[in-house]
Amino acid sequence: MEFLVVIAFFGYIYYLRNYADLRTPSEKEAAALAEGIKLFESGQTGEAFDYFDARIRQKPKSSIAYLYRGMCQKKLGNTEAALTDFQAGQSYDDQVFTLHLELGKLYLEQNQPEQALAAFNRAVTLSEETSAAPYEWRSKAFVLLGLTNEAEADANHANELSEQLKSRPGTHAASKTPFFDKRLVINMAMIILTSALLLYVINNAESIHMPYLVAVFAAISIGFAEPYKGWLLAAMQCILLVAGYFLFTSPPGDGARQELENFSLYGSMILTFAASFLGGFLKRAFNMK
């Protein structure tokens, strides 16, 4: 029985690792590289370059690391190295619109408006109206190519889109996912199932080992599923355990059994919080790869 429980929860963790994370690969990479991105955005270009250079050596196929190292190279005056980095980033993930945007800017600075226009066209398509920048820069490319009508249309659309983005909760200013997002709701539903399983184990276990084992694996799964909101899921599981135990189970007939169930119940609640933090660390470790 214990072996089957271990297999089941490892399967659950595998599912969370590979299928339950609804972010795109580039969004996962950006989350893992947040420290370096903050360095770049705060103007610490040299430190940011060292950070992304080290990360590329650790993970050579990170398109976001190439994007930011390329932007660092550009700020440091190494335009050819920046061009190489942007192209390398595209070779690993050509769905990141910022890579095409930055590549287009570089082509524009090198007086290659045709190549810049092709890059900006791709950036416009991939951005899906979440940023006005691709339109702004494509307008500049149209100007250099003498296409004044197209340039004016893009400039006007960029202004309109910029105003729309300011007034709606999306994209960069509000790109943070809401607290109660779809993934959290799905995981809350899973907590109901794991709580019911743990309650069943507590009610039927002959020792504290099995309830503690189930509690640990359930809690690690909690932290793995929600590394930043795991505390909420852990609290929810504890509440469900207490409510379920006192509302839906009958008290045991002897004191020894009652003591065993008390140790199993309250010990499982403590382990739920402790192991959920461990699960959060595991998830961050996976994201760092």
Automatic annotation (TrEMBL):
The keyword Membrane applies. It comes from Dyadobacter soli. Gene3D superfamilies: Tetratricopeptide repeat domain. Pfam families: TPR_16. The chain crosses the membrane at residues 184-202, 208-224, 231-248, 263-282. Keywords: Membrane, Repeat, TPR repeat, Transmembrane, Transmembrane helix. TPR repeats lie at residues 97-130. This is TPR repeat-containing protein.
